[in-house]
Structures are given as structure tokens and as C-alpha cells.
Design brief:
Elements (H helix, E strand, L loop, with lengths): L20 H5 L6 E2 L11 H11 L11 H15 L8 E4 L2 H12 L5 E4 L6 H8 L3 E4 L3 E3 L2 E3 L2 H10 L3 E7 L11 H13 L3 E5 L26 E5 L13 E5 L2 H14 L6 H13 L1 H25 L13 E5 L9 H9 L1 E2 L1 E2 L10 E5 L4 H17 L4
Helix pairs in contact: 2-9, 3-9, 6-7, 10-12
Length: about 400
């Protein structure tokens, strides 16, 4: 059994999540950060051991991906997602976000567009904009069973605007935590094939799945759609390795494999971190039990959050997500101010991720990261409750 309840201070480790309050905001170092998608759990011990073992060799020069790295990914994708992957289909990159930045630049001309489905992880629309590509929005619909694609509107967008060249799929979805069905994936892939649209499937949260839920990889779609599809995966969310800069693309299209690999090499995108190599191999070959126990602990945190809200803030709408460690809370019934998250940070010393960043229509939402010891989550929620009571929103 692994210990996820153990509190490990990350202060003074140059940690993005914890080490910014005093230097950036002049706030005391007692803020509880429940915002960025980064775990506060100690890493899989075998990952730490693998890094220490490699660090013992005193030279850290240019390093080629070893066979064991490819094998670890191939076996993980088969074992976890029932997907067959060949070595030549794997193209390494230093991060999923950097991957779709490069793919947009490669595959979408300046007069072409990218379609995304808000509410969604902000880089999905910010990166195309930074590359001067216009973004088209196909909002998800919230109803029974969670959040679902509006495929009728999706097709209308593609049919009415032939300049749409790429769809970025978030699978599982961040921030709603939705797991899409094979039928949904096949349906959206069929439309993209019909209208000659590339699909980039960001599956970085694919292994953080709640009990009795199931992630369907986009690669499970009909083989006829594979030429239009690029999957982006990584161990970095599941095993909390974001600082090690390692991820990978899976590309079935042989022509695109060659082009993307060439661009990735020329740009340095595929120059992955030497310690990231060791971490991925260790995580994907020795981390199955850790992943299962971690997901179980996260689910218990979701249950705690649901009960806490029911007892203290029953008007806050919340559904336990099917995947990810991110809770998507709707505060609209409380009519909190537009600067709610900022006020919580400075006045209550707890930080959430404002929903407005995921799309203009989601200003009443806050994203809460529950991948932390339960006492940390409890203290953060108590601070939010106290602030709401003090300011008469409850």
C-alpha cells in the first residue's frame, strides 16, 4: 500500500504550485494551492530510484531513446488501453502542449482554422491564437450523464467553414472529467474524415480514471480514420513527472510520421530529458499498482468533496468526474463576484483555477485540484466556506 495521505512540503523547491505566493504576490507562504494540475503525492518510489541510479553516472550528455523506452510505451498502451502501437509510430516530444503547438504550425495554414470544445484547457485555444490561427468554438452540452459533444453543431461548423483544418480533442476531458464513448469518438472522427480535418487527441489524463469508468483511446476508432489522427500521451499527469519534460505522439499515418519526426528533430522537440527517459520506463513498467491506488485515493477525495459541499454549500453544483483529478464546480447559484478566485487567493489564502480561463461562458465555475492529501483539501475547502460565510454569500 502506498501512502497518499502523507503531507510532503514542496516549499522552497522552485515549485510552480507552492513557491510563487511570497515572491509574486507578497502573500505569506500559507496559501493552499488547489489550482494547477499537479499532484502533491510523492512519486512512485521506483521512479525516484531509477533517476538516482542514472544520476550516479557523472555524465549527462546527449542521449538517444533506448529500446526499453519504446517497449515500455508499447506495452503500457496495450495493457492499459488495448491499443496496438509500433515503434515507428512513436515520436517523442518534450510535452503534450509543445506537441500540439508544433502540429498546428505544421498542419494548419495561416488562413485555416482550429476547432475546439469549451470549456476546455486554455492552451487549446490560446496556442492557435498565438500562431495567428483563428479558433472556432463547438461548446460541449451539459445534461444527463455529464458533458457531451454537440455533433450537430460540430458538423455545421465544418460544413459551413471549409477552412477548419484541425480539431483538438481533449480525451478524457479537462476540466469536466468526461470520458467519451467509442460511439462518440467514431462519430466525431467520421465527420473529421469527411471534411478533411486533422484530429489531435490530447490523452494526457487517460490513466487517471475513476472506479467503474472507462477511458476509450481515440486510437480505438475505426482504422479508416487513423490517417487523420495524432494521439498525444505522457506519464507526466498520472505519475506527476511534468518537470521531467517527456511525452510522446502516436502517429499511424506513415507520411506524417516522417514529416513530424523530421520537424521534431530539427526543432529540438524530440530531445527529451535524460531523467525523463528513466522515469517513464520505471512508471510504465512498475507503476500499475501505484496508479490504481492513486486513482482510488483521488476518488475518495471526490467523495469527500461531494459530502463537504452537500453539508456546507449545497447550492454549489458538482458532479464526480469520470476521469482526471479535477473537480469542476459551478458557483453560479451563489452569485459570487467575478473576481472570486482572486479574492480567495488574497483574503482566504486558497487558490482555485477560475473557470473564465476555460471559456468566456464559464465565469461562474472554478476548477479544483483534489490530487493532494485529504487534510490539505479539507483545509482549503474550509477556507472557501469561511470566506463565503463572512462575505454573506451563504
Amino acid at each position: 500500500m502506498y501512502q497518499f495521505d502523507k503531507a510532503q512540503s514542496r516549499l522552497h523547491s522552485s515549485c510552480t504550485k507552492w513557491d510563487r505566493y511570497k515572491s509574486r504576490y507578497q502573500i505569506e507562504e500559507d496559501v493552499i494551492p488547489l489550482w494547477v494540475a499537479d499532484m502533491d503525492f510523492e512519486c512512485l518510489p521506483e521512479v525516484s530510484e531509477a533517476i538516482r541510479k542514472r544520476a550516479a553516472h557523472p555524465i549527462y550528455g546527449y542521449t538517444d531513446p533506448p529500446k526499453e523506452l519504446y517497449d515500455a510505451i508499447i506495452q503500457w498502451e496495450k495493457r492499459q488501453h488495448d491499443v496496438e502501437v509500433r515503434k515507428e509510430e512513436i515520436i517523442f516530444n518534450t510535452g503534450v502542449v509543445y506537441g500540439f503547438y508544433t502540429l498546428i504550425d505544421m498542419l494548419v495554414k495561416h488562413d485555416e482554422k482550429v476547432i475546439v470544445q469549451p470549456p476546455v484547457y486554455p492552451p487549446f485555444f490560446n496556442i492557435p491564437k498565438s500562431l495567428q490561427r483563428e479558433v472556432v468554438y463547438n461548446p460541449l452540452q451539459h445534461g444527463q450523464g455529464g458533458w457531451h459533444m454537440d455533433l450537430q453543431h460540430f458538423e455545421e461548423c465544418l460544413k459551413n467553414d471549409t477552412s477548419i483544418r484541425m480539431f483538438i480533442l481533449c480525451n478524457p476531458h479537462n476540466p469536466t472529467g468526461q470520458c467519451y464513448t467509442l460511439e462518440e469518438i467514431n462519430n466525431v472522427m467520421e465527420l473529421c474524415k469527411r471534411y478533411n480535418v486533422w484530429v489531435v487527441s490530447d490523452e494526457i489524463h487517460a490513466d487517471i480514471i475513476m472506479p467503474n469508468q472507462h477511458h476509450v483511446s481515440a486510437l480505438k476508432c475505426r482504422c479508416a480514420y487513423h490517417d487523420n489522427l495524432i494521439l498525444l500521451g505522457a506519464p507526466t499527469k498520472t505519475f506527476n513527472l511534468a518537470g521531467l519534460k517527456i511525452s510522446y505522439a502516436i502517429v499511424k499515418n506513415a507520411v506524417l510520421q516522417e514529416t513530424f519526426a523530421s520537424v521534431a528533430k530539427a526543432s529540438g522537440l524530440s530531445s527529451i530529458n535524460i531523467f525523463g527517459i528513466e522515469a517513464l520506463i520505471a512508471a510504465y513498467t512498475k507503476g500499475d499498482q501505484w496508479r490504481e491506488e492513486c486513482c482510488a485515493y483521488i476518488y475518495d477525495n471526490f467523495l469527500f468533496l461531494k459530502e463537504f459541499l452537500a453539508n456546507t454549500m449545497p447550492l454549489v453544483r458538482y458532479e464526480i468526474p469520470q476521469a482526471t483529478y479535477l473537480a469542476w464546480l459551478d458557483f453560479s447559484a451563489l452569485q459570487v463576484p467575478a473576481d472570486f478566485a482572486e479574492r480567495l487567493k488574497f483574503e482566504a489564502h486558497v487558490e482555485l483555477q477560475p473557470g473564465i480561463g476555460f471559456g468566456k461562458a464559464y465565469g461562474a465555475y472554478q476548477r479544483v485540484n483534489v490530487a493532494c492529501p485529504r487534510e490539505t483539501l479539507k483545509e482549503g475547502m474550509l477556507r472557501i466556506y469561511a470566506w463565503l460565510k463572512k462575505n454573506r454569500y451563504l
